[in-house]
TrEMBL record:
PROSITE patterns: 2FE2S_FER_1, 2FE2S_FER_2, FAD_FR. Its cofactor is [2Fe-2S] cluster. GO terms for molecular function: 2 iron, 2 sulfur cluster binding; dioxygenase activity. CDD domains: BenDO_FAD_NAD, fer2. Residues 104-201 form the FAD-binding FR-type domain. Keywords: Dioxygenase, Oxidoreductase. It comes from Roseinatronobacter thiooxidans. This is Benzoate/toluate 1,2-dioxygenase reductase subunit. Residues 4-97 form the 2Fe-2S ferredoxin-type domain.
């Protein structure tokens, strides 16, 4: 018997990861782990448990056409009451986590270290009490000791380990930044999640990844997984910051590039006084060729103006990528100031 990891992505952004045996139906495995995927039967008749399998191999037992058509099955839809995984899978559940009687996982953690990567960014290292499974690119809420508050950050580390890392923007006066400036090794925090629809899908075509500042974090997590499983598809990563000092984690990126073999790293600096071969913004350098005539998956993580500018730039180029996944990050302190 083989056991596989199945990530259940709920429509409210929460992800829960379960273990499912190769002779076990997904609904049964979920129920065993206290998650109730909606269903009215267990026989492939009603269609209530219909979901979209975004990744993985599986077998489907009996189901009626009234529950799921052949076209839906060909498009990747499954009846989870009849689905038995044959590999690790990712399934999109058309219901909220609350409706399925579950919630984000909460894990205690110990501060293992804080690295001052630059004047504008920290690296936070945590030791989790137990491993957290997540999809590379997803985020968690990290509590800020002594404040009763939390802040949301994408993992910059690989899933499934007790050692977790985060790349955090230094905001003077910010709740987390103020804490990190004086954080002590051994202090306790709580990590809640994982959450978010920004995560790496199966790589079947060229990849164009765009990172603005600490928006590099989810891409580091993605690259860790790619380095582990491998790919023959080209990956182009644009990494845009303001100044050369803000280009953090370059040694790690170069090591991952050497391991992966198909990764091309392009750095851009916005400050005009910097001596750098590429200056300005990402949109000053992105071409139609980067989009491979539309046969490319695009992932973008950066501040809202960057996301909006890239979308407008694609329209100007007249090229629509095969898929476009983006995450806008806006610090909580900035939101409060704008309110």
């Amino acid at each position: 018997m083989t056991t596989y990891t199945v990530a259940l992505n709920f429509e409210d952004g929460v992800t829960r990861v379960i273990q499912c045996d190769d002779d076990e139906k997904v609904t049964e495995a979920a129920f065993r782990q206290k998650i109730n995927i909606p269903m009215d039967c267990r026989d492939g008749v009603c269609g209530t448990c219909k979901c979209l399998a975004e990744k993985g191999e599986y077998e489907l037992e009996f189901y009626m056409d009234e529950a799921m058509t052949e076209d839906e099955a060909a498009a990747g839809y499954v009846l989870t009451c009849q689905m038995m995984p044959q590999s690790d899978c990712v399934i999109r559940i058309p219901a909220s986590s609350a409706a399925c009687k579950t919630a984000p996982e909460e894990i205690g953690a110990t501060v293992a270290g804080v690295d001052r990567l630059s004047d504008t960014s920290f690296g936070l290292r945590l030791g989790l009490d137990r491993p957290m499974q997540f999809l590379p690119g997803q985020y968690v809420n990290v509590s800020v000791p002594g404040t009763g508050k939390h802040r949301s950050y994408s993992f910059s580390s690989a899933p499934g380990a007790t050692a977790a890392s985060f790349l955090i923007r230094n905001l003077p006066g910010g709740v987390m930044s103020s804490y990190l400036a004086n954080a002590q090794t051994g202090e306790r925090v709580t990590v809640t999640g994982p959450m978010g629809a920004f995560y790496l899908r199966p790589i079947t075509r060229p990849q164009l990844w765009l990172a603005g500042g600490t928006g590099l974090a989810p891409f580091l997590s993605m690259l860790e997984q790619v380095a582990e499983v491998g790919t023959d598809q080209p990956i182009t990563l644009y990494y845009a910051v303001t100044r050369a000092a803000d280009l953090v984690e370059l040694a790690r990126l170069e090591a991952l590039a050497a391991q992966i073999g198909t990764l091309r790293l392009i750095t851009i600096l916005a400050a005009p006084e910097e001596g750098h071969p590429r200056k300005g913004f990402v949109t000053d350098h992105l071409t139609a060729e980067d989009l491979c005539a539309g046969d490319a998956d695009v992932y973008l993580c950066g501040p809202p103006p960057m996301v909006d500018a890239v979308r407008a730039h694609f329209a100007k180029l007249g090229v629509t990528p095969a898929s476009f996944h983006f995450e806008k990050f806006n610090p909580t302190e900035d939101k409060a100031a704008a309110a």
